[in-house]
Amino acid sequence: MKFSKRQTLKRIASIIDAKYVGPDDFPVQGMNEIHVVTPGDIVFVDHPKYYDKALSSAATVVLINKEVDCPEGKVLLISDDPFRDFNKLTSHFSAFQPSQNVISPSAVIGKDTHVQPNAFVGNNVVIGDNCIIHSNVSIGDNCIIGDNVIIHAGTVLGGDAFYYKRRPEGYDKLLSSGRVVVKDNVEIGPLCTLDRGVTGDTTIGQGTKLDSQVHIGHDTIIGKDCLIAAQTGIAGCCIIEDEVTCWGQVGTTSGITIGKGAVVLGQTGVTKTIGGGKVYSGTPIEEARERLKRFAYTKQIPNMINEIKEIKKNE
């Protein structure tokens, strides 16, 4: 998330009542998760295991729970609870805005686009030309939809990220301020759910088609001309490259990449990054051809046992 105007380190520290290391007027331009940070951003870290990763990232403002050596060109915000204070900043710069209308007055809807009855269009949504938004679709704040897009009934764009921190009293939610971005010529089936990014974008590439009941987790990027069949669940922060096919009930773990042109057969669990141009199946995932070979060999075991018995009998 980028701020509407540049802030200073001193101003940010005052919002969360934190100490800081660096000049008062150090520029702060936004806040993001570590995988999407750019210079000027705040990133938070609250575990020593990830200190080095945060301090060496592109972010120039590190919200951290220990005063450490500050890298050159960067500044620190010292907090006893960076997770909590990151949420405070999200609430301050991207506060929830209740809607007063089914279609927000701030929404921009393109030429020859049809929004069917009972669809909800939130604040600052942009929908392109020649789109069809069917009934009971919910499009959350700040979503961007391209031209020639079809979204079928009951689909939700822009739900919050599934991101929680375990505390003694229960789960603490990391607030979401990101968007869902849908490119041109996409079709999204009924009852799909596309979570917005925590601070960045969840993106569906041009020409991609989603079947019914597909879930796309926060900050995932899906490329061009992909086919994703029913009941597939893509976890957060994944990269699905162009022309990937995922058949029904595929599931992934977070943070993986599926290479260009890969085909993932039904009910496969994608537990690791896989290369493009191949066909995969099973859990744990492997190339489908290798799995079929092993099945074929396994079927020969009873015959092999019988042959061994016959040999021993004739000895």
Automatic annotation (TrEMBL):
Its EC number(s): 2.3.1.191
Record-linked InterPro entries: Hexapep, LpxD, Trimer_LpxA-like_sf, UDP_GlcNAc_AcTrfase_non-rep
Stored CDD domains: LbH_LpxD
Transmembrane regions: none
One function term, GO molecular function aspect: N-acyltransferase activity
Cellular component, GO, one term: membrane
Keyword Transferase: yes
Domain (UDP-3-O-[3-hydroxymyristoyl] glucosamine N-acyltransferase non-repeat region): residue spans on this chain: 25-90
GO biological process, one term: lipid A biosynthetic process
EC main group: transferase
Record-linked Pfam families: Hexapep (PF00132), LpxD (PF04613)
Record's keyword terms, sorted: Acyltransferase, Lipid A biosynthesis, Lipid biosynthesis, Lipid metabolism, Repeat, Transferase
PANTHER family in the cross-refs: UDP-3-O-ACYLGLUCOSAMINE N-ACYLTRANSFERASE, UDP-3-O-ACYLGLUCOSAMINE N-ACYLTRANSFERASE 1, MITOCHONDRIAL-RELATED
Entry protein name: UDP-3-O-(3-hydroxymyristoyl)glucosamine N-acyltransferase
Native source organism of the sequence: Spongiivirga citrea
